[in-house]
Write a structure and sequence with these properties.
With 102 residues, the chain is mainly alpha-helical. The protein contains three helices and two strands. Helix 1 packs antiparallel against helix 3 and helix 2 packs antiparallel against helix 3. The protein starts with 6 loop residues before the first helix and ends with a strand.
Length: 102
């Protein structure tokens, strides 16, 4: 299995990327809606969208890790089964061989 980065590092990087990419969104919203209340609502919606994306991405990464774990085939050693050796005695009586096992 290949080495993976911890999910927290990937989530932090994703959050930073999305926040930097989303910095232009409130500016365009301010042009469309000049009222401060409406801008705050739009920014809150943008934040919720980013949080949902990060949560979805984290969920998908966790599912991928579970799938990778499920694909690992662990070779089990064959079970050690003690073998009982019968203690047989063969007696020849006349022309007949008689075996008695205990």
């Amino acid at each position: 299995m290949s080495a993976r980065r911890p999910p927290s590092i990937l989530a932090s990087a994703a959050l930073a990327t999305m926040v930097l990419a989303g910095l232009g969104l409130p500016a365009s919203a301010q042009v469309l809606n000049p009222s401060a209340k409406s801008n705050a609502l739009i920014q809150q919606n943008d934040l919720q969208i980013l949080q949902n994306r990060i949560q979805r991405q984290q969920f998908q990464q966790q599912q991928q890790q579970y799938r990778d774990q499920d694909r690992v085939i662990v070779q089990q050693p064959p079970p050690v089964v003690p073998q009982v050796r019968p203690s047989c005695q063969t007696q020849i009586i006349g022309n007949t061989a008689v075996s008695t096992c205990r």
